Amino acid sequence: MKILVAVKRVIDYNVKVRVKADRTDVDLANVKMALNPFCEIAVEEAVRLKEQGVASEILVVSIGSKPCEEQLRTALALGADRALRVDTDVLPDALSVARVLAKVAETEQPDLILLGKQSIDSDNNQTGQMLAALLDRPQATFASEVKIDGDQLQVTREVDGGLQTLNLKMPAVVTTDLRLNEPRYASLPNIMKAKKKPLEVKTPADLGVSISSQIKLISVEPPAERSAGIKVGSVAELVEKLRNEAKVIA
Amino acid sequence: MSILILAEHDNQTLKPVTLNVLAAAGEIGGDITLLVAGHGCQAVAEQAAQAAGVSRVLLADAPAYAHQLAENVSKLLLNLADDYEHILAAATTTGKNILPRVAALLGVNTLTDVLGVESPKRFKRAIYAGNAIATVEIDEPKVVMTIRGTAFDPVAATGHNASITQLDQVYESDDVSFRHEALAASDRPELTAARIVVSGGRGLGNGENFDLLYQMADKLGAAVGASRAAVDAGYVPNDMQVGQTGKMVAPELYIAVGISGAIQHLAGMKDSKVIVAINKDEEAPIFQVADYGLVADLFDAVPELQASL
Ligand SMILES: Cc1cc2nc3c(=O)[nH]c(=O)nc-3n(C[C@H](O)[C@H](O)[C@H](O)COP(=O)(O)OP(=O)(O)OC[C@H]3O[C@@H](n4cnc5c(N)ncnc54)[C@H](O)[C@@H]3O)c2cc1C
Ligand SMILES: Nc1ncnc2c1ncn2[C@@H]1O[C@H](COP(=O)(O)O)[C@@H](O)[C@H]1O
């Protein structure tokens, strides 16, 4: 069984971004970048399936400029077999990303495609669903458990009301939620080994896809700043303030 | 202009968040159609017909739609899409699962979790865990998007009387089937709609200690939420997670107990009107957004607070 995992380079989750003074965008100069946490979980899941003997090959794909090869190397160090970067300097919209991934899927014919549920930069939560639609394959988003039985996939999803379990026929698209697994750290020997694993670069034109940006960023503003309020000295004072000052309790 | 909204429901009742989506649609402007897709959901259609601003209700009632499977509902929406410039749903796990699929079938991009309407093509949404609010313009022939309920005041649930039209198209994929679900049953208000939310974090130490919060919540008529750390540690189920990758809440009062205030948690609650933090670490970042901070051991403070309510 072959698994395709889509991974994205994003700002490290510990960094608090700031809006640029001219409000045209956020300031990403010199900030630490990393593999999107949900993509890391997707890679980990694929590696576990390989370790269990269920999967035989893991291909990781990222769409972006040269620096995202760093994140592809990370994925290779975690246990993926080969990597593909689809080169683009423009920021692709989600439909373009899904179209590129669909083309890759057409040639590679994976049985399972894993994506993160959400990029922590755009907070979009849409690419996996779009890819599944383009391929006309079933989807299980927000997965917290994945079991494979022949060509059947049983996936438990984290939904607003609790948990929902679906059966899907492969090939299928699964997007990962936080509790699917806890990703390992890449060991030093594996980081060294990853440098020798194949990493191919293609252009969107090679794949017959064009990249567009149909969503224009007009401006960015900081969220309404909350100023720290006061410290109360006791529970009695807190209750008094909530009743008489904030008037939020009776 | 005309707008199609996918109603959020559980086959019995129309979820209030639909009323918030209707408010967003009202700001876009245009004739509004509400689609109720489900099974045995006639009652939902009747409630939907009463909501303010709805011109007509479409009812697609079939077993294939019982569990809101994206494969089936997206084809239904695709089939209806011709008549509408905007297709909206709530930014719930249901809406987020289905609408991007619809968009891709239509060959257009989609906007997730929209929190402001500037014009029919220009919207505001949060990015980077709420650390920036982006104004974006979408250049697509159809605008497909999910709406953050807490960002719009709901329209009136009753007083209206729109027509209900039955649809008989049934789309059913052979590639996916529903197996089972484990939905949390609770008498407390729904987290995203509650006026007061009491949330607990890793500081609670274990699941039993959450009883302290449940008791206090019941006294206040509040919903109970949690940080990711509390969910990951197994203290409480996943549906209670508040934050960037959990639920967005904006109650009048948010009481954070034993929560440090990581940016991912703040992303989900910092639009609350009044924030109270109870934490024994006076340096905890949650105090930077709290209107009222109490530096105390929660095991002393919460019982005392509960007794004085
Ligand atoms: C991709 C990604 C997405 C994430 N999404 C979310 C999300 O949606 N929501 C979310 O919440 N987190 C999310 N997180 C996790 C987030 O980064 C934090 O790890 C998490 O919010 C911490 O939870 P906590 O505050 O309960 O735990 P901690 O940070 O461990 O804080 C516990 C607090 O309890 C206090 N405490 C301990 N004992 C007591 C006591 N007896 N009395 C009073 N106070 C006490 C401590 O002083 C401390 O401040 C995400 C992380 C990642 C990487
Ligand atoms: N540029 C990209 N390259 C590869 N995968 C991506 C890219 N953008 C998004 N994805 C995948 O889609 C998932 C969801 O992203 P999003 O829909 O942007 O929130 C991510 O976790 C990745 O798995």
Question: Could you explain how this protein is built, in words?
Answer:
The complex is a heterodimer of chains A (250) and B (309). Chain A is an alpha/beta fold. Chain A contains 7 helices and 13 strands. In chain A, helix 2 packs across helix 5 and helix 3 packs across helix 4 (127-135). The N and C termini of chain A lie far apart (61 Å). Chain B contains 8 helices and 15 strands. Helix content of chain B is 26%, strand content 29%. By secondary structure, chain B is of the alpha/beta class. The N and C termini of chain B lie far apart (50 Å). Chain B is globular, with a radius of gyration of 20 Å. At the A-B interface, helix 3, helix 4, strand 7, strand 8 and strand 9 of A face helix 3, helix 4, strand 5, strand 6 and strand 7 of B. The complex binds flavin-adenine dinucleotide (FAD) and adenosine monophosphate. The site of adenosine monophosphate has 23 residues of chain A, from helix 1, strand 4, helix 3, strand 6 and helix 4. Chain A: The electron transfer flavoprotein serves as a specific electron acceptor for other dehydrogenases. It transfers the electrons to the main respiratory chain via ETF-ubiquinone oxidoreductase (ETF dehydrogenase). Chain A: Its cofactor is AMP.
Summarize the structure.
Chain A: Pfam families: ETF. The complex is a heterodimer of chains A (250) and B (309). Chain A has helices spanning 37-51, 69-78, 94-108, 127-135, 188-194, 204-207, 235-245; strands at residues 2-6, 9-11, 33-35, 57-64, 82-87, 112-116, 139-149, 152-159, 162-169, 172-176, 199-202, 215-221, 230-232.
Features:
heterodimer; A: 250 residues; alpha/beta; Rossmann fold; 9-stranded mixed β-sheet; 28% helix; B: 309 residues; 2 domains; 26% helix; globular; binds flavin-adenine dinucleotide; binds adenosine monophosphate; Rossmann-like_a/b/a_fold (chain A); electron transport (chain A)
